[in-house]
Design goal:
Elements: H1 2-8, H2 20-26, H3 31-40, E1 47-48, H4 51-81, H5 92-127, H6 134-147, H7 152-155, E2 164-165, H8 171-174, H9 185-197, H10 209-240, H11 245-266, H12 270-292
Antiparallel strand pairs: 1-2
Helix pairs in contact: 2-3, 4-5, 10-11, 10-12, 11-12
Amino acid sequence: MAQRLSKKDKEFKPGSFYTDQDFYDYAPKGLASMAAQQMYFPNLNPLRKFGWLSCRLQLDYQMELGNISDKLFGLDVDLDEGLPGTTSPPNPGEHSLRCWERDGLITKAKKLYKEYIDFILAERRMQQLPKVSEQAHARHYNLAKKDHCLSDEQLEVFRYAHDFITVTPDTTFRKFEFLLFSEKPLVQKCLRFISRLAGQPPPAQGYTAYGVRVFEWTVNSGLALMGCALFMAPVGILYLGSLPPGGLFGVTAAFCFVFVALMVGLERRTGPMLLGISAYMAVMNVFLSNVNQR
């Protein structure tokens, strides 16, 4: 990278530091530039789990272990039937050969079974990673096709839309990530305004690394303010307003519906989604019951 920077950037001096921005700007077009983009935008990571291949390997492991199990059981039966209550086998040479064969199968089974267990545990961890939506994957695919000059053969691995996952824990921010690559004038103006507020230069070709962090803070701040509004607004209406009981219930139901719609849209994990909805409705019911007792 230092050698390429010295050729491409006249301001770069030998011994200077280089950053993710430099990799993003000067990586050769193709897989190198795509890797730099995935490093530069951590959320933009088209990572495949190879679901069909995983299931295919599981079947192969099960078939092979099943065959070993059947053979081992048959050898145990043969050895048992070859010793009908006597202290020595009728055919010592054959008995010894069967014992060696059984020991070899056991050794092979131990190794293969350990691989199978490790594979299953890895698959369990893989299943816990959230999937990438088809819409988000389509944006990533179009970006790779447009900006990285990949061939059809290289793009083929990205066409299995249902096979992509993410290792990024913040899946909520991913839903707003497409704005960073939007070409709409209004969105571009908002992004430039965010950059100026953060004291960063406006983006020229693609968004800046520092701008991504600022944009993420902006999104998280907006979501936090929205959450506060969904709590404070109904509480203010219930306590400060003079609505009849039917109106109070209607306000509570309306805000609960809005909160449920947001949680379903933003939180993909079922457990946290149900927990958040239950907590919000419990708080709202407490306030509603207290208002009715005044």
